[in-house]
Amino acid sequence: MRLRKLLNPLATIVFALISIFYVSPIIIVLINSFKNKTNISLTPFQLPNYETYIGFENYLAAINDYKFIAAVGWTLIMTVGSVLTILLCTSMFAWYITRVQNKITSFLYLLCVFSMVVPFQMVMFTLSKTADTLKLNTPWGLVIIYLGFGAGLAVFMFCGFVKSIPLEIEDAAMIDGSSPLRTFFSVVLPIMKPTYISVGILETMWIWNDFLLPYLTLDRNRFNTISMVIQNMQGSYGRVDMGAIMACLVMAVIPVVIFYLSSQKHIIKGVAAGAVKG
């Protein structure tokens, strides 16, 4: 007991220092977003003063000069469309292959799990060519591509949760005359809410911050996501608008941080719920 009383404050201090270490990059980016470009490179860890502070000029430059608002719009459309499509399609698919046990469904499940371990670098060149050929180089076409890449984790989590749902609940709905589709939307879907939230959070954070997949597939002359706009801020001859980059990073991170902090408790709840059986 004495040893535990001594270790608890020590552990609190250690984890507090680790937390500060992880949060410090965000704080540094926030501080530098209010400084002029020259001093961001010269004194990145120094607080703004009367010589270096320029207010919201970097934010205005990011919005006016680099079309940041348009990038937010395309990223939002792409993220919301992809996440909703992934949640609906993978949950229905996971319910089907879990309840219908045969060699085909077992193979499909293994195929989804296998897709999680295939490196993206193995398919990125053929994917770019395929997206151009099938005219999927738009934010709406990218929804289909994200469905393919996000299905593995989503199906794995949904299958784990469906196995924990008593089959008698669905049988009772079937006896009352409910069709399979109505049974899913009226009975199964409400029960799967914790996993829906968990998968939605994970997929949202991935798609919102993704750079490589949109960069390889989108028509960059018409569509740019937030990550692509930040990349485009590096001009010719190595010129980099550090002030606008810092402002864009802050504006891009804030929605994700708020979304994650307000929903983080559901991640553990959903993962734990899906780990009951299977």
Write the layout of secondary structure elements.
Layout: H1 2-32, H2 37-42, H3 57-65, H4 68-99, H5 103-115, H6 124-133, H7 139-162, H8 167-175, H9 180-191, H10 193-209, H11 212-217, H12 226-232, H13 242-274
Helix pairs in contact: 1-13, 3-13, 4-5, 4-7, 4-10, 5-7, 7-10, 7-13, 8-9, 10-13
Q: Supply the CATH class.
A: Mainly Alpha
Given the C-alpha coordinates, what overall shape results?
A: globular
Which regions have little confidence, pLDDT < 50, spanning 5+ residues? 274-278
Relevant CATH superfamily: MetI-like
What's the end-to-end separation, in Å?
Answer: 38 Å
Task: Tell me the strand percentage band.
Answer: under 5%
Count the domains.
1
Alpha plus pi helix count: 13
Can you give the mean pLDDT?
84
What's the story with the biggest beta sheet? Answer: none
Q: What sequence of helices (H) and strands (E) makes up the elements? A: HHHHHHHHHHHHH
How many strand elements? 0
The whole-angstrom Rg is 23 Å
Helix content: over 70%
Q: Structural class per helix/strand content?
A: mainly alpha
The CATH topology corresponds to: MetI-like fold
Write structural notes for this entry.
The structure is a single chain. Residues 274-278 have low confidence and may be disordered. The chain contains 13 helices and no strands. The chain is globular, with a radius of gyration of 23 Å. It has helices at residues 2-32, 37-42, 57-65, 68-99, 103-115, 124-133, 139-162, 167-175, 180-191, 193-209, 212-217, 226-232, 242-274. By secondary structure, the chain is mostly helical.
